[in-house]
Structures are given as structure tokens and as C-alpha cells.
């Protein structure tokens, strides 16, 4: 499964700045209330268990895996219904370096706001030609691309009348197990973002803005699809010439 | 004014939501056949060196209810303490595994080999352990924790040694329930809340 790449000791991970993330407990997102740890996290410098991680090779990825418009039907004549969208961007680390050859996975609702999942019972219909998941591996410069349809907004049980903005879930590995990140991409101009208690778990507005993808005409293809740009930053490693002390020093 | 830092800020986390399986384990979501094979189905392949073990447990919320929608990932060294990709590592150990709480019972199972102790940067060893990352609806940022083993020598482990409340150390230690069988429950909140990590 893993490609044989030998990790080198490049220094410990930069500790996570938790103020830039949502807190575990948020009363307006009701499910977080019983699922949030109450005691402080145990902080410690990363060890090899956090600094190493799984590597996935191109052999894992099928040729249609990053094309959600046809990867369910497996038939170019049976595309998914919806606004055709290219989702693209780069994966970087906190030091500004591209993260190449790393796995990116996405999942989303269909154009009507319905997920293809055994537990989704929303009244919007399933699209017989849409599965709702995709995966790819970043290139040597950290770039990734998915062709998909714009997901619909949908209601969900939380407060009295709650709607999720249009969003695509995204999961990134990096090269260290403690770089693991799952987040959500929103779409420029969606008025529901400002009403969403899940988006609002991020209290720092400039951090929330970073989850809103930008309409990008430079990659939009005439008479075919619109493009949205979404860059992702993972944790980096602390790299100074004083990192690797000799044993016992 | 001071000089501008040129470092970037990590992208903020959002909950994985109730349908995390669609993107991570599509077969579990009821959608087989989209990918050639789901990722991380097995921590080990046949022939991996060491003791094959099975760890079962649940992810339990503050009310005592086992989550039915949690998704867990594990990462570990092989029986000799080498991580996949390191020189001399056991090629039959993938190290990485994905598993989900059962949709009806909330129970999860991880089948793997018991890892060896692993060296620390600057000397010393960590006791055998498996790193976990837990996501679910209502979890706003993935939770890191570890599984240690009650039948190993954990006395010099640097992480366990750092836990001030010694009564909480047990939350990270899997209980042996039979030959090669362990139990490890993860409590998100309440009495015996699991120690979660920031590493």
C-alpha cells in the first residue's frame, strides 16, 4: 500500500495553533455538546508516531477517481446532473512549501442537496449518476484538481430551521500522521455561510474566509465548467540548525 | 511596526460530518465499486511478523451513548518498532488502517500486529502504542489519542509519564480480554474521559 519512501528526521512538527481552529465545544452546533472533550489536551513535542505517516502511490488511484461527474456511472454519456465545476488548488505547509504526492479525498451532496449514504433520508432525490466521492494525489508542486458538480444546500436538524451552505468536504494527509486535516470548502457568494453554525464554529473571520473558494475564470473552460480555487495549508516542521542534537547532549 | 512573518497559517478544521464514510470508506456508506478498493482496509497483510491482535471498542459520548458514525484511523510501527517506509521495516505491515463504528452497535474492530517500542529523538524509547485519529459529526477538529497495552512495560514511556493525574493513565491502556484480544473504549467526555493529545 505505502510507497517505499524513507522519511528523514526533518525536525518536529510546529505545534498546532488551536486559536485558528474551532473549539471542541460549541453550543450552537448541538452535536458538539456531548462529543467535546472537557479536559485540556495533553501537549507534547511530536514523536516519530506523529512525524511519520502513510504514503499512497499513484497505483492506488483509478483514472476516473477525481472526476465525480462520471466516476459513479463509469460512462461519459451518463454524467451527473448539476452545474459543472472544477475544484482546484494547492496543498502547502506552514513554511510555504508545496506538499507533493499527498492524497486528497472529497465527498459531497448531489445538486439537490442529497448524499448517497445509507443514513441520508432527505426528500431530494438521488441522482442515479452521482456517487459523491473523489480522490487524487497532488503533483510535484502540490496541485490537485477535481471535476464535479456544485452541491446543493440542504436542511439539517439542529436549531429550528437550519441549512448547510453549499460545501464540499475535503480530507488531506500530508506526510506526517499529525498533519491530518479534514475541513469543508464553501463557495464564494453563498449567503448561507453567514447563517451556518458549523461555519460559525470558526470564530476568527479571516480563518473562515479561507474556507470560501474563489470563483476563478483563469481555469474556467468556456462552454463547459466554472472553476473555484481552494488552497490548503497543513502543519509544517520546525527547521533550524539546532534541531538535531547529538544523542545525550 | 515589525517585520512581516512569511509563515502561513494552517487551514482551519471543520467537522467531518455524518457522511464521512462516503469519501473515506465508500463501501461502508453503501457505495461499493466507485474505487478499485477502499483505502486503509487492512493494517497488515498476511505474513506480517509479530503477534496478530484484535482490538475492539466504542467511541462513547458524554451521555454514555456509543457513536454510530465515528471514523477512526490508526498508524503504528511494525513488531520491530520500525514505521512503514523506514529502512528495514516489515513490508507486510501497512501501519495505516481505517475503521468505522458499526452503524447499528457502534462497535469498532482493528486487526493488526502489536507494534514494538520505538526510539525517541535524542534517546530513549516509547512503549508499544498505536496512534489514533478520530473524526465524526459533532467533532470540530479530529481527536488524537493512543492505544497502549496493559501487558507491556509502560513505566518509562515519555507520554504516559507526562500525565499528571495518574488515575487518567488507564484511559490510554487497552485491556487484555483473551489471547490476542484487547478492549479499548474511547470516552469523549464525562467520567473517565480519554486523554486526548496535542502533538
UniProtKB/TrEMBL annotation, chain A:
Enzyme Commission number: 1.13.11.3
Record-linked InterPro entries: Intradiol_dOase_C, Intradiol_dOase_core, Intradiol_RC_Dioxygenase, PCDO_beta_N, Protocat_dOase_b
Top-level class of the enzyme under EC nomenclature: oxidoreductase
UniProt GO BP: 3,4-dihydroxybenzoate catabolic process
Domain of life, per lineage: Bacteria
Any GO MF annotation of the entry: ferric iron binding
Keywords: Dioxygenase, Oxidoreductase
Gene3D superfamilies the record matches: Aromatic compound dioxygenase
All residue ranges annotated as the Intradiol ring-cleavage dioxygenases domain in the record: 87-115
Family the UniProt entry places it in: Belongs to the intradiol ring-cleavage dioxygenase family.
Protein name, entry field: Protocatechuate 3,4-dioxygenase subunit beta
Species of origin: Thalassobius vesicularis
TrEMBL record, chain B:
Species this protein is from: Thalassobius vesicularis
The keyword Oxidoreductase is annotated on this UniProt entry: yes
Signal peptide range in chain numbering: none
Protein origin, superkingdom: Bacteria
Protein's name in the database: Protocatechuate 3,4-dioxygenase subunit alpha
E.C. designation(s): 1.13.11.3
Family (UniProt): Belongs to the intradiol ring-cleavage dioxygenase family.
EC class: oxidoreductase
This protein's UniProt keywords: Dioxygenase, Oxidoreductase
GO MF, one example: ferric iron binding
Residues of the Intradiol ring-cleavage dioxygenases domain: 42-190
